[in-house]
Amino acid sequence: MNQIIEPIIWLNIGIAISALLYFTLLKNTTTFRFNRFFLILVPFVFVALYFMPWSQSITVFEGYAVNMEEFVVGEGNGQSQNQQTNYLLIGLVSVLIIGVVLSLKNTLTAFLETRKSVETHESVYMGDFEQPFSFLNKVFIPKKFKEEQSLNYIINHERIHVEQAHYLDLLVVEFFQVIAWFNPFFWLLRKQVKMNHEFLADQGIVENEKNINDYKQVLLSASLGIRAVSLYSMFAQESPLKRRIDMINKSKKPIHWLRLFTVITIVGGSALMLKSCTEDKLDQKEEQAKTVQSEIEPEDIENIEIDPKFPGGNEALFKYLGDAIVYPESAKEEGVNGVVYCRFIIDKDGSVKNIEVLKGVNPEIDQAAKDAIANMPDWEPGVHKDGHAVPVEYNIPIRFTLKGENEESEKKK
């Protein structure tokens, strides 16, 4: 489950960093092309760092033992971490479904609108819709704009969006929306991506326009609500026109090396800090699960092709533990709780043997954990690359937690 949730967390952190840095250092610059790729790529940089070998796995090996996920036993009956994970999975799926619905809404609406149109020029379509827009590689213009004197500006503006493939950025943004719609920084980033597209389109018009004032006048008229209602609908809906005119008036300057260095340093530093926190968490897991010297040959572990499998898989394993482990009444009465670290071996025939408590809580709790492991049904054994069965050692932390203790730990969080 963590392998699904953690990349989403990293992506959302990347989105937040991208939005914050843009607002802090890049928002008022004229490096629109650089800004375009910065806004889109930084979140992917964080995801890429997550999937690099040093940060992708939470399974550690110490003394040639496989460390299992912590299992939680409550006061009443066993509550498996896997059951908790199921709730997380339901929540995650719900989040993704909402994101998909939100993302498809605008795209589907635009697609349905395009079906009302008729091609008048190459890749230019007119139809009964409210405002001009581009969809993939086509430009769509409302019929009411047909007699507008500024029609060429409108068409050329939308064509620049098409030529520069801004729709690719929007597809990426829609992907972000699926898994980050709940992130307030996503909505800031989304708005700035679209705003930057308008800056790029304005820049494209201005670079090829002899009389820049004419184009600025069209924008200004739209912002003041003078005639050109169509342009107001097109331009003002997604971006403040005053800011666009200000950007047109700004002289085009390359990004200053110091600003670029600052951006790269902050992005890199943030990613490394996040990586460091993840590594510290892994180190803690390793320290908790240290084992005594194993009797299993290192070569066997290194060359395992098929891991041992509990009948029915991990979900069945945690269900079994939830049913088999009973919180001792004496421990509950005395308010005893804690984590029991157990080690056991799945032998070549799939049987469970050599059950040990590496670090216990008290005799009753320790025995409850050992009994549940001892009564496990036979597993499917691990298989070496050459086809023969091999023994595999496992460590499992089993946390016994009382209601009051659990509530207290939640308060501390």
UniProtKB/TrEMBL annotation:
The keyword Protein transport applies. Residues 312-409 form the TonB C-terminal domain. It is a single-pass membrane protein. Keywords: Cell inner membrane, Cell membrane, Membrane, Protein transport, Transmembrane, Transmembrane helix, Transport. GO terms for molecular function: energy transducer activity. The chain crosses the membrane at residues 7-25, 37-54, 87-108, 257-274. GO terms for cellular component: plasma membrane protein complex. Its main location: membrane. PROSITE patterns: TONB_CTD (PS52015). It is found in: Cell inner membrane. InterPro entries: Peptidase_M56 (IPR008756), TonB-dependent_transducer (IPR051045), TonB/TolA_C (IPR006260), TonB_C (IPR037682). GO terms for biological process: protein transport; transmembrane transport. It comes from the Bacteria. The keyword Protein transport applies. SUPFAM superfamilies: TolA/TonB C-terminal domain (SSF74653). Belongs to the TonB family. This is M56 family metallopeptidase. The lineage of its organism: Bacteria, Pseudomonadati, Bacteroidota, Flavobacteriia, Flavobacteriales.
